[in-house]
Amino acid sequence: MRIKPADQRCRRDDDDPRAGSLWLRGGLIALGVSFIAFVVLLPLLAIFAEAFSKGWNTYWTAISSREARSAIGLTLLAAGIAVPLNVVFGVLAAWAITKFEFRGKQLLGTLIDLPVSISPVVGGLLFVLLYGAHGWLGPWLERHNLQIIFAAPGVVLATIFVTLPFVVRELVPLMQLQGTDDEEAAYSLGATGWQMFRRVTLPNVRWAWLYGVILCNARAMGEFGAASVVSGSIRGKTVTLPLHIEILFNDYNAAGAFACATLLTLTAGITLALKAWAESRGAAAGNGRRSGGLIRNAGGGAAVRR
Amino acid sequence: MGAPHKTRLLPGFGLSLGCTLFYLSAMILIPFAALFLKAASTSPSGLWAAISGPRALASYRVTLLSATLGATINAGGGFVLAWILVRYRFPGRRLVDALVDLPFALPAAVGGIALAAVFGPNGWVGRLTYPLGIPTAYSPIGLTLAVTFVGLPYVVRSVQPVLEDLDPEVEEAAYSFGATPWQIFTRAIAPIVRPALLSGFTLALARGIGEYGAVIFISGNTPLSTEVTSLVIVGKLDQYDYAGAAAVATAMLALSFALLLITNLLQSRSRAYQAG
Question: For residue B164, which residues of chain A lie inside 8 Å, CB to CB?
């Protein structure tokens, strides 16, 4: 594990004039800790307290019911399609953006960032207006007996849409930093395009890439707004795990809703652990991210700009 | 997309850009075209009626107000969190660092029901506040809590790297020349951190404006008082009012787009500070 400069500074708290007085220090720590305790820690604990409030049996019944299993299945299916597609897209888009100069690059960057800059509900609405019964392609789909909206394909499409930027936004800043020298050397020494890509480019961006996959997957499994608009919430058919939680919660089955919520909470925990791992490995390999956040340079749109 | 400016040395330009454009067209451009087509095929008066209906108008105010309030709380709380994470070592520091990312990793709907459980009338906090006459859920307070929750990581993670990069010598020099801690903070630290703080604020604001999952479980969703714009769109969809939904969505997009421009402006300024 890399020692952050922060840690070196922390050790000097007592003799460092910059640390401020003991009172100030204590007050700020108390303020920050109680802020996050109220807003994040208490809700996190409440999920587990509520889930087990009616005992193990209720918990187990809630997460193993037929509807819960079908919801888990659809969530895994949507993530299983959205993540690989967006990974392939992310690598291709990052390659085009960082290795070549062309006009319209900024516009391309804005387009890629659109799904995270708008409300997921609007994202879902786009697909309803395109593929829904009254949508643009609705009549054509109906004639061919295809249903996308209020069916599983709509949920998959909405999931792809909201998770589209995650991989490319991780790759672009790093690949921009690395430039084209390594690839040009490999290529001019006679490597084929594929060899160069596999032996030079991929190892260079491995950890940032993994990081993007983790984020993309977390968002795919948790997507709610866009999915709820396109799914129509047909129980056992078009309901993902977050939508299943909503249904249970609105049915006054709080224990059941929280039981299913623990599954997604555990997924979030695994995401955070994997993130810490990818980050420390990336830092060790010198091609990871610099700071601790899940949000790359906090950038709505900054990723692609110079 | 025109021809590249210089001779291309590396392979794969056509393939990668072609696939990118194809994918973006299918997933983003064509769906957006469907939205604008729907909005354009509605009569201007009908469009305007949907955009400026009383519920829609109230929802813009509610959405903007709660998102601004949430982002402001996050600017204050997030700055303090970033400060103590960077500068101090205290028990539970690593836990706090991990908790900061949780609202980003946790599905919004789960965050929403968890907040409702804590701040609702029978929750750990609600049991204390409701007898005092403070409705912490199903009210504007609940709505603000939800947008604060989802926006929390943005300010902390924007400010943290800037604080880490501060040159200790500047502060040490100021101190040795007799500056008070408050002077050091306002003159040496605040100007450097301000752009990052602003950009974190804008990101939290944008996230708050678009938030749906966390909000609907705790805000009460009362029309005219706690109904957010995303919910107005869903409501119109539930009544098969597609044109109305498209109209309100277009208004919301205009707002998001304005925010995106501000974010980028702030970020280029922030980067200019860091470079200079």
Answer: 4-6, 291
Has residue B6 been placed in a domain?
no
Phi-psi region of A16 (alpha: psi -120 to 50; beta: other; left: phi over 0): beta
Q: Give B-chain residues touching A225 at CB under 8 angstroms.
A: 108, 212-213, 230
My answer on whether B23 and B110 are in the same domain is no
- Say what the pTM is: 0.88
Which domain covers residue B29, as residue numbers?
Answer: 12-41
Mean pLDDT of B83-96: 93
In this complex, the residue of B17, B85, B199 whose CB is nearest that of residue A298 is B199
| Cα end-to-end distance, chain B, whole Å | 33
- In a domain, residue B141? The reply is yes
Look up the domain containing A47 and give its range.
1-51
Q: What angle do CA A300, B272, B200 make, to 5 degrees?
A: 35
Split at pLDDT 50, 70, 90, the class of A120 is very high
Distance CA(A207)–CA(B249), nearest Å, equals 37
Cβ atoms within 10 Å, residue A147: 15
Helix (H) and strand (E) counts for chain A? 16, 0
Distance between CA atoms of A258 and A44, rounded to whole angstroms?
11
Averaged pLDDT, B132-151: 94
